[in-house]
Amino acid sequence: MKKNYTYLVGVLVLITSISFITPQQNVFICKGSQSKRFHLKEDCRGLQYCSTEIYEVTLEEAKKIGRTLCGWED
């Protein structure tokens, strides 16, 4: 039961954080060939192994190229 509760809380936090993101908000992406996520903070730990430059783009642009929110974002 505790695992399900922890998972549910995590999902709710993720949904809540996404709801405050606007399409015009800037996010950060790595343009590496294996990159699939966008990041709300430039110092997100999900970007620490980026092998190329880190770019700041709008959320709308990131979604257009198929990026999804990084799992490390709190």
Describe the structure.
The protein has a two-stranded antiparallel ribbon with strand order 1-3. A two-stranded parallel sheet has the order 2-4. With 74 residues, the protein is of the alpha+beta class. It starts with a helix and ends in a 5-residue tail after the last strand. It has helices at 2-19, 59-64; strands spanning 26-30, 37-38, 54-58, 68-69. The protein has two helices and four strands, in the order H-E-E-E-H-E. It has one domain (2-69).
Quickly list its features.
globular; two-stranded antiparallel ribbon; alpha+beta; 2 helices; two-stranded parallel sheet; 74 residues
Main sheet strand line-up:
1-3
Number of domains as seen in the coordinates: 1
Low-confidence runs (pLDDT<50, min 5 residues)? none
The major sheet is characterized as: 2 strands, antiparallel
Distance between the termini: 23 Å
Backbone shape: globular
What structural class do you assign from the helix and strand content? alpha+beta
Order of helices and strands: HEEEHE
Rg:
13 Å
**Fraction of helical residues:** 25-40%
- In DSSP terms, counting alpha (H) and pi (I) runs of 4 or more, how many helices? 2
Beta-strand percentage? 15-25%
**Number of strand elements:** 4
Protein topology:
Elements: H1 2-19, E1 26-30, E2 37-38, E3 54-58, H2 59-64, E4 68-69
Briefly say what this structure is.
The protein is α+β, with helices and mostly antiparallel strands. Helix content is 32%, strand content 19%.
